[in-house]
Structure formats: C-alpha cells, structure tokens
Amino acid sequence: MGSAAAGAVALGAVAGAASLVPHSAAMPTAANVKALDQTGGAKASAPVPSRAQAVVTTIPTSWDYSADVVVVGYGAAASCAAITAAAAGASVLILEKAPEVWAHGDSAVFGGGIGVLNNDPVWTPTYLATSWSAEIAKETAGTWSASDIQILHDNFQNLPWWLNSIGVKAHGGHATGNGPGLMATLTADVVQAGVQVLYETPATTLIQNPATQEIVGVVALTGITWNKAYPCDPSYAGGEEINVRANKGVVLATGDYCNNPDMVGAFNCPALYIPTVGGPYNTGDGHKMAMAVGADLWHFADGFEHQWYGFKVPSRLYGTAIGWLPTVPDEYNPPGHSYIFVDQYGMRFTNEERTHNHDRSPLDAYYYRGDNGLAWNARGYPHSPMWVIGDQNYIKSGPLGGPNLAARDPPYTGNDMEFNEVRGVYKWSADNSAEIAQGWIFQADTIAELAAVTTGTDWYGNVYSPDPTGLAATITQFNANCAAGSDTLFGNPTFEGNVVQRPASTLQPIDTPPYYAAELMISSAYAMGGPKHNVSQQVIDVKGNTIPRLFVAGNVGNYEWLHNGGMDNACCTGHAAGNSVAALTSWETALT
Ligand SMILES: Cc1cc2nc3c(=O)[nH]c(=O)nc-3n(C[C@H](O)[C@H](O)[C@H](O)COP(=O)(O)OP(=O)(O)OC[C@H]3O[C@@H](n4cnc5c(N)ncnc54)[C@H](O)[C@@H]3O)c2cc1C
User: Fold this and answer.
1) What pLDDT, in 10s, does the model give residues 22-56?
2) Confidence check: pLDDT of 331 > 90
3) By CB distance 3.0 to 4.6 Å, which of 127, 220, 522, 569 could disulfide with 365?
4) Distance in Å, CA 256 to ligand 1 centroid
5) 275 with 312: CB under 8 angstroms?
C-alpha cells in the first residue's frame, strides 16, 4: 500500500473543525421568524426579577402578559395542554424558546408512531387490556396507587377518540405526515382556539407566592440575541425580562434535556458527548425551573432512549446528530458493508449491524464488555472514542451520513424523522467528498497510515487514535471471517447485546485502498426523566407535597408507560394537564 495522496488526506478533524462552515445549510431567514406581538399589557415596573435568582418569590405588582394558563414550550404536549385548557374556557398563552422556524422540539421530527392511534375500532380496548394496569403497577413499583393507574389507563384509552376529535389523522398507529403532519394539525388547532404564542421567548424562572407556594407566573426573556454558532444554536445572550402572570397555573412542557450535555452526564451517561436527534432547544429548562421550586425527580433511568450513531465532529458543530446512515439496515438499503467499528485499542466491540432504534439496553459503545479482553478498570469507557473504519468500496457505495436518504433509496419513502433530516440542517455530499475535505472522514492508503492520521476525543478533550497494531490485527481477523462467512467475534450469548452475529451477507472485507475512518458516537432520541408528578400532572416536591398550580406535560418527567411511546405520553399528559389546570380557580380570586 502506498502513501497518502497529497491534499486528499485530512489530518485532524478537531483542528479543522473550528473554521468550518456548513457545506449546505438551510438557514432561517428573518422573514421566516415571526416578530413578537407584544399586546399583553404594560411593561412591569418593580420589582424586576434577577436572572440570577433560581425562583422569584416576590409577586410582581404589574405584569407584561396575563393569561389563565401559561404553557411553556410548544411541542405536542404543550399544544394538547393549550387546546384542552382553551376548550375548557381558559385563556392560554404559549411561551416558546425557539424561533418559529425551528420550533416544536422533538414533536416536529418524531417518527410518526402513535400506538394508540391504530384507527381500528376493536383494537383500542384490546390494546389496553386489563393486564395493562397490573403490568404498569409492577413496572413502576409503587409509583402510583392502583386507582391512579386506573385513571392513567382510562386517559390512554380515551386518547385516540380525543385526538380524532381535534383532527389528528393517523393510520395503522402512524400519524399522517409524521412530525410535520401532526404539528401542522396541532398548531392549527392552537390558532383556532385563540391561544397567543410568543416565539423566541424562553421562560427562565418560576414566580412563586412565598406564603402559599403557589406558582403564579413565570419570568421570560424577550428580545434575546441568538449566539448562532450554528443555525439552530439554542444559546443566547441579553434580552429583557418580562413577567407573565398565570391566573390558574403554569404547564411546563419544555421537552427533554437531551441537548444539555451536562444534564445527560449527570442523569445518564457521565463524561460522554451524546448528540441528540431531537429538538436542539431542549436543554432541560423546565426541569431546572421545577427543581428550583423544590420538585422531586424520577424516571431518569427508564426514559433515556438512544437512536443510531452520529458523526461526532459535525454533530457537535451543528448541535444536532448528523446521522451515520447505515444504522437501520433493514429499512434503508445500506451501502457496502466493508466496514467495522473499532475503539482506541483498534478492536471491534459490537455487531456493527445491530440496530439501535429506541434502544435502552446498555450500549456496547460506552459500556465495558468482557469480550474485549480488557481489565474491568482499564478505562471508564474503553469503547469511546470509537470510529467506523472502511475501505474504498464502502466510501463509494453512497453517502455515509444523513439526510440524503433520497439519494440512497429512491423512490424516497417520505419516512422523515430526526431533526437534521426533517429540518435539513446539514446535507451530506453524495460522494462523501465534502466530508473528507472537512476532515470529518480521515483517509489514508494503508491501515497503518490510517491509524496514524485518525483522531478522536474524549469528554475532557484528550485526543486518541486507534492502536495501529490492534487495528491491523482486527482487520486481518475481520477479513478472514468474511472469507469464512461467519463473524466469530460476536454471537456469544453470554454478553448482552452481542447475541446476534453480523449476518454473513454483511461480511465484506476491508481490503481495497484508500481506507477511511470517522469518529462516531451513539445518539440520543429522547429522555423522559424529570419532575415527579401525580396523575393530574401536578408537580410533587421533595417532601411529597404537590406544588400548587405547577404542572408538567410531555417529556418533562414522564415515563413510557408500557407500550405507549413518547408521543402517546406527550398527547395524553398534555391533555390531562390542560384539563387539570383549567379546572382551577384563579389565584387572584382565591386571594380576595
Ligand atoms: C427522532 C425522534 C423520533 C421519535 N419517534 C417517536 C415515535 O415514533 N413514536 C413516539 O411515540 N415517540 C417518538 N419520539 C418521541 C416523541 O417525539 C417525544 O416524546 C415527544 O415529541 C415529546 O413532546 P414534548 O411536547 O414533550 O416535547 P417537544 O416536542 O420536544 O417540545 C418541547 C418544546 O419546548 C421548547 N422549550 C424548551 N425550553 C424552553 C423554554 N425555556 N421556554 C420556552 N420553550 C422552551 C422547545 O423549543 C420545544 O419546542 C421520537 C423522538 C425523536 C427525537
């Protein structure tokens, strides 16, 4: 094997990344971003709450906006809460952090599956069979009483009919038009219900009556300046604080915390960067606001879902997982199979064709596996960094990254999901040349040279390369397995996750230079841990008391009750929260 071609070999993704510009990015234009319609009242005088405060405990004497119900966030859960509360006669205001062009979080990019919307008249009763409640009771181990679980059961049971009544279309458990289709229906309903929406208005702080502990409003920011390190960068500066009164209560529907690496680290996977395929503005703000008023927490372990692999460097650059495509092999006709995954030891650690789709099992990508022959304490994450290694046949087989599924799988199925795919943040080049030029894919003429030019980083910024001796041995063994038609390394039932061997049809040798490598990382889809709540969606504090007038809906603090997915939960809990909050009397009425 010869030396690397001059100019073609990328020497270091990290160094190159700082000055990168999007290869082809759909930027929101100013015209797309709806201006704020500040018709809600006079500017507050005193007191002006400080953003440094975790919670504001002085009730403002004047308010910038006022509504019976203030809903924070504008995904499916928020929409369902708003539509329900408005139908019950409440005035409703929605505060959404994102610009309109990027709004609606995970809900706008979800895969379309809403289990309870089978549209089969006999199916719903059988779906939530009598055993459902018993199973939930077992699964949630005393979380709620039997009567609470019965209420939850009935809420799910009624969900299809309610969604149907507000115009949500579905077939076979699949929302028509996936995320964009569902959100088009829900946002039309929100508008029709007369709900006011303020975009680019992040809620930051709850306002709590210190005497009664009631949540009487929120502080939000208007006129913020987006940092815009990338098109959908959720970080901002500046802005003016506004006081928003909630006469009946506040519903936090801010989605999950998947784009907050510190929270992912604290609650799920310490010291690992895990790009999200969901809404980039979901940074756990609702969790923090609820925590600041004493909310207890739950369900972090059982609600963190993984979704496929992402290219780590571009995912970091764009703040959303730039997906590695051949991860749903049965669905998308993957390109050539002359590739493997290796870790810093140059060793394989998983069946690469194992699909990670809504996966919650311990992941090979970041859990120690005894089958690697490493001491248990060799490293916290022996398989991170990890790289995909392939040859010329692999790189020529098509784009390695999303969202160019159309190019790979014509006619395109229209089964869009993931933020990058639906929103078109970054379009991967058809022949991978742009990504090689960017330094996201390393290239070399020999395996030894590839090991030398390939780099990856850990959480702390330490730079690693795959061990050249290990990599050479691994490829030799893999190629021998390809010739034999059996992937002997995996398939040992002792090790969870590796019980399925890579199929013989996918065993194609890595033997045609140039060779390629790119750093990958497993991505997250969504997380459901967060503030504890009762079946009315009212938040419970660390002493076990409800926090008056504070509700959560959707991915904030929920749970995937048995077979029901995240979207079923978002709609069901949003509907429940809307009903609960609308039934309250105004705190001002209660004061007089
Ligand atoms: C790629 C993908 C595929 C999925 N597929 C499925 C599926 O097939 N079936 C299924 O059941 N579930 C699926 N899910 C999960 C499902 O999409 C979520 O559970 C659901 O959308 C959560 O809705 P939500 O309203 O709670 O949050 P989101 O839809 O994420 O909305 C949260 C909103 O809050 C806003 N926000 C955040 N912070 C603030 C703040 N401080 N102030 C104001 N607004 C704020 C965000 O901008 C966002 O608009 C999928 C998720 C993903 C990412």
Assistant:
1) 233 333 233 322 222 222 222 223 333 345 678 88
2) no
3) 522
4) 7
5) yes
Per CATH, the homologous superfamily of domain 56-302+528-591 is FAD/NAD(P)-binding domain (3.50.50.60)
Beta-carbon contacts of 237 under 8 Å, excluding residues fewer than 6 positions away, are 224, 225, 227
Site residues for ligand 1, CB cut-off 6 Å: 72-78, 95-98, 103-107, 109-114, 202-203, 253-255, 277-279, 281-282, 285, 307, 417-418, 525-526, 554-555, 565-568, 570
Question: 62 C-alpha vs ligand 1 centroid, how far in Å?
Answer: 33
- Closest C-alpha to ligand 1, atom 37: 254
Q: Yes or no: say if 529 and 304 are a contact pair by the CB < 8 Å rule.
A: yes
The model's pLDDT over 370-424, given as tens digits with 9 standing for 90+, comes to: 444 555 555 467 788 999 999 999 998 888 887 544 434 333 345 567 888 888 8
Compute the distance between CA of residue 116 and CA of residue 158 in angstroms, rounded to an integer: 9
DSSP code at position 293: T
What is the spatial distance between Cα 190 and Cα 74, in angstroms, rounded to a whole number? 10
Q: How does residue 448 score in pLDDT terms, banded at 50, 70 and 90?
A: very high
Candidates 74, 118, 567: which one to mutate for ligand 1, based on the most atoms within 8 Å of Cβ?
567
Q: Which two tokens mark 447?
A: 């395996």
CB within 8 Å of 65: residues ≥ 6 apart: 40, 41, 93, 198, 242, 243, 244, 245
Q: How many residues are listed for the chain in this entry?
A: 592
Mutation probe of ligand 1 site: the residue of 51, 104, 110 with most atoms within 8 A of C-beta = 110
C-alpha to C-alpha distance for 286 and 96, rounded to whole angstroms = 12
Whether the per-residue pLDDT at 230 is higher than 90: the answer is no
Query: Is pLDDT above 80 for 17?
Result: no
| Per-residue burial over 370-397, b = 16 or more CB atoms within 10 Å of its CB, e = otherwise | ebbebeeeeeebbbbbbbbbbbbbbbeb
Report the C-alpha gap between 544 and 547 in whole angstroms: 9
Q: Could you tell me what percent of the chain has a pLDDT over 70?
A: 78
Provide the pLDDT for residue 494.
47
Q: DSSP letter string over 348-416? A: --S-TT---EEE-SPPTTTS--GGG---TTS-S-TT-SEEEEE-HHHHHTS-SBTTTHHHHSSSP----
What pTM was estimated for this model as a whole?
Answer: 0.87
What number does the ligand 1 atom closest to the CA of 279 have? 30
**Are 72 and 287 spatial neighbours (Cβ–Cβ below 8 Å)?**
no
* Ligand 1 pocket test target in 72, 106, 522 with most atoms within 8 Å of CB: 106
Q: Is the pLDDT of residue 121 over 70?
A: no
Residue range(s) in the chain whose domain bears CATH number 3.90.700.10 = 306-525
Q: How far apart, in whole angstroms, are the C-alpha atoms of residue 566 and residue 185?
A: 18
Which CATH number describes the domain made up of 306-525?
3.90.700.10
User: CB within 8 A of 431, min separation 6: which ones?
Assistant: 396, 399
Q: What are phi and psi of 435, to 5 degrees?
A: -75, -30
Q: Whose CA is nearest to atom 35 of ligand 1?
A: 73
Q: Where in the chain is the domain with CATH 3.50.50.60?
A: 56-302+528-591
Mutate to test the pocket of ligand 1, among 65, 71, 107, 564 (most ligand atoms within 8 A of CB): 107
